[in-house]
Amino acid sequence: MVNRGPVGPTDDHPSGPTLADLVAVPTAPLAAPLADALAEVRDRALRDTDVSFVITDATAPHTPIVWVNDAFTRTTGYAVEEVLGRNPSLLHGPATDLVEAGRMTHAVAEGRACTVTVLNYRRDGSPFWNQVSISPVRDDAGTVTHWVGIQVDVTEQVRFAQTQQQSIAVERRARTGLALVSQVSDLLSDLDDPYVLRSIASLLRAQVVDWAAFFVADRGLRAAHGIDPGFRESASTHRRRPVDHVDGPPPPDPVQDLLDGASAGPVELRLGVEHGGPTTAWLAAHLAVALRSRPDGASAPHQVVVHGIPGRRRSQGVLVTVPRGGRGLAALDESDLTVLDLVVRRVGVAIDNVRLYAREHRLAETLQRAMLPEQAEVEGLDVWTYYAPSSGHAQVGGDWYDVLQLSAEQVAVVIGDVVGHDVEAAAAMGQLRSVVRSYAFDGGHPGPVLDRVDQLVGGMRMARSASLVLAVLERADEGGWTMRYSRAGHLPPLLARDGDVVQLADAGGAMVGFGVAPRLSGEVALRPGDVLVFYTDGLIERRDRTLRDGLTSLVEAASHVGATDAAGVGEELLARLADGPEDDVAVVVVRVPGDPAGARADGATAPRATGEAPRRRRWSMPSEAASIARARHAVTRTCEAWDLPGARSAELVVSELVANAVLHGWGHVVLRLFDTGEGLRIEVEDANPAPPVATDGHHGRVGGYGMQIVERLADWGWRPSGAGKLVWARVRPSPFAETPPPPPA
């Protein structure tokens, strides 16, 4: 309502008009005494009611107040004489919503009724919520002469409604936070996803903050998209040792304090200023660049919030966020802080678990490699080995093999099986393997060697029984070899010659440690082209078939092998028989080099038959530098066996791929070779999910050009594979040949 000046006394009403005069409405003719009595009652009723009434003059400038009742004074604290002639806007104050109050001004201008709820102020300055309803009073001609306003103090109702809304908002925020934490838990259930941390950061950006990113502690901080199990401890993840500073105490480093556990956090980090602490300075410089070109186009913030990612024993890294509005910690309410705290704790537990599992897995692989050495490269023999434990946790078992170069003219092959496939079986296997190796190097025929093994094992009181085959190959004339062997309760080796397969079942005896009679030695002459297959029962034994049936299947499979090298023979046998092993599997294939099967009289290799399955090879190698040379040797042999061009290019490509897997990955390196019919395809798999990157070299040090070499010699790509990645390359016959775009991985 808008007042337009005070209304003074008139001649007819020396003290001003009465309420009956102001709001008189024409009625049917009444007797004068009755009309006066009714007007008096109406005046008393409006004056004495608990509802605040205000009447303003619509015809005077500024619509002034001309009458208020006692309830108005009780509600506002203003006496009648203090408000007469003034505009009702005298109740406005600093927090009054002028837009809402303006609705009454528009209603007055349009001559219609209106109801609003605004924050008004009493005479003493105290606020109250006022529900104001105004209605026009018209004369006989329809002209608005006055406005009647009814005011109701609804402070309690508004506060109750606000409390309810706040409670609902808090509950909604809590539910939203719980839903977000649940989504984070769902994302963390797939720890093999190389971009899981980036997905969680995107989730936080969508629901809690303007920007978020994870940085993990691994020889200092580095940006992270996924959970990297290849954690390497460094001084940057432990409390710093005190250092004497000439100019005074060391500069503050709040981010490093978070990593060291000296600060619980979160901390606010200002950008665009110089920081003395090295970790804080690096993070601030990195963020200044990263936030300069944000996807949402927002300007770079002046400060960020840094939460530590707690682990069991050390911090796993930090979460950096830009709160909405860019005001730092002040922009995060209690609910936001709770959600961020729960997220970093869950991420910390996940990173800790992944790294703990990775450490245990590396220990198991180290134990496995110590007990099961990689095959020896024997001059004059083509040797291929394979081992796969049945246990998915320990990654070690009771099967083992050894290929030993006893002298320039002698090679020993041992394959054995300790009952069970657990850590205890692996420990027994390690003891037995050491004994057999020692006695094999002492020389002698296999039978007497196993007699000595029986005597020692009997004295050791090994808790597990075991079987094995010991074979000693000695170089003979004209490229041949003589093999002497003895079996201690183990399955007979196979000899494949010209398509025929024979079981070498002689020289059998009791299991190791149970021999009572002297052990015998069998002997067989080997010619160029002959293939020997040593194996454990895990290759052929299944619940749905007997061991005899499995041995028959192995003999049949070996008789139909078309490969001309040891790796090809082993790969074909595994493809036919080892599709669902239920026990540890160990296989050793030894081939005496000679003319490959299928070679024509003119020396040319027979072409592959139309529709023949692609030829493939597979090797599992430890993550060590020696595997690079072994991979080159494997590729060279395979290209020769398959008569494929570009062997030199393939050797360079596989050298770079395996070197990258050894330098930047962890776990075993798996090498696969495929004859696609159009050339050689190389696949190298390791447990590091980070993709390979072609760079222009590393500043200040040698290296970084490996993938450029691969790009020059082959078409290549990569894809996630299990817990790591698989890098593939299709070798070009010539490094300068024009080739079509690479096929999909």
Quick recap of the structure?
By secondary structure, this protein is an alpha+beta fold. It is built from 17 helices and 25 strands. The chain has 4 domains: 19-153, PAS domain (Beta-Lactamase, 2-Layer Sandwich); 164-360, GAF domain (Beta-Lactamase), CATH 3.30.450; 373-606, Phosphatase 2c, domain 1 (4-Layer Sandwich); 614-745, 2-Layer Sandwich (Heat Shock Protein 90).
Description:
The protein folds into 4 domains: 135 residues, PAS domain (Beta-Lactamase, 2-Layer Sandwich); 197 residues, GAF domain (Beta-Lactamase); 234 residues, PPM-type phosphatase domain (Phosphatase 2c, domain 1, 4-Layer Sandwich); 132 residues, Histidine kinase-like ATPase, C-terminal domain (Heat Shock Protein 90, 2-Layer Sandwich). Helices cover 34% and strands 23% of the residues. The chain has 17 helices and 25 strands. It has a 5-stranded antiparallel beta sheet with strand order 2-1-5-4-3, with helices on both faces. Helix 13 packs across helix 14 and helix 15 runs antiparallel to helix 16. It starts with 18 loop residues before the first helix and ends in a 14-residue tail after the last strand. The N terminus is likely disordered.
